[in-house]
């Protein structure tokens, strides 16, 4: 019998970042771990739609912790997505370059 496939999802939301890890077994995903950290990335978006240094630092620290937990995962097993705050942020590329480096996986900005 083949072993279960590990999968992980990272959600970079405006208020919280989440990490869900699960196993795909017989067509069903069973969640094995769930981590949530309040980073308040959206509160760091100023009037000119730029992320503050402080909010980026909070987000990067969280993603570094998530990256440690994801060590050993194949890139095909991990999907990381960012939503509204990073869609709006004018300096999102600056954040994303660093974020992908500390997480260890690509991050897609979705609409």
What does this structure look like?
With 111 residues, the chain is α/β, with parallel strands linked by helices. It has a single domain, classed as ATPase, nucleotide binding domain (Nucleotidyltransferase, domain 5), CATH 3.30.420. 31% of the residues lie in helices and 33% in strands. The protein is built from three helices and five strands. The chain has helices at 53-69, 84-88, 92-103; strands at 5-12, 16-25, 28-38, 78-82, 107-109. It has a five-stranded mixed β-sheet with strand order 3-2-1-4-5. Strand 2 (16-25) and strand 3 form a beta hairpin. Helix 1 (53-69) runs parallel beside helix 3 (92-103). The longest helix has 17 residues, at 53-69. The chain is elongated, with a radius of gyration of 15 Å. The termini are far apart.
Key words describing this protein structure:
111 residues, alpha/beta, Nucleotidyltransferase, domain 5, 31% helix, 33% strand
Write down how many β-strands occur, each being a DSSP E stretch of 2 or more residues: 5
In the CATH hierarchy, what is the class?
Alpha Beta
Strand order of the largest sheet: 3-2-1-4-5
The helix count comes to 3
Q: Are there runs of 5+ residues with pLDDT below 50, and where? A: none
Instruction: Give the CATH H-level superfamily.
Output: ATPase, nucleotide binding domain
Radius of gyration: 15 Å
Task: Work out the strand percent.
Answer: 25-35%
Distance between the termini: 39 Å
Which fold name is given in CATH as the topology? Nucleotidyltransferase, domain 5
* Helicity range: 25-40%
Order of helices and strands: EEEHEHHE
Mean pLDDT: 95
What is the makeup of the main sheet?
5 strands, mixed
Large-scale geometry: elongated
Q: How many distinct domains?
A: 1
CATH architecture: 2-Layer Sandwich
């Amino acid at each position: 019998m083949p072993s279960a496939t590990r999968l992980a999802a990272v959600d970079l939301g405006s208020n919280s970042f989440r990490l869900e890890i699960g196993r795909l077994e017989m067509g069903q995903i069973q969640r094995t771990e769930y981590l949530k950290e309040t980073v308040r990335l959206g509160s760091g978006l100023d009037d000119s739609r730029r992320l503050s240094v402080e909010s980026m630092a909070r987000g990067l620290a969280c993603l570094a912790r998530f990256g440690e937990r994801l060590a050993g995962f194949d890139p095909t097993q991990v999907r990381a997505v960012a939503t509204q705050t990073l869609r709006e942020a004018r300096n999102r590329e600056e954040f994303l370059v660093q974020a992908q480096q500390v997480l260890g996986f690509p991050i897609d900005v979705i609409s």
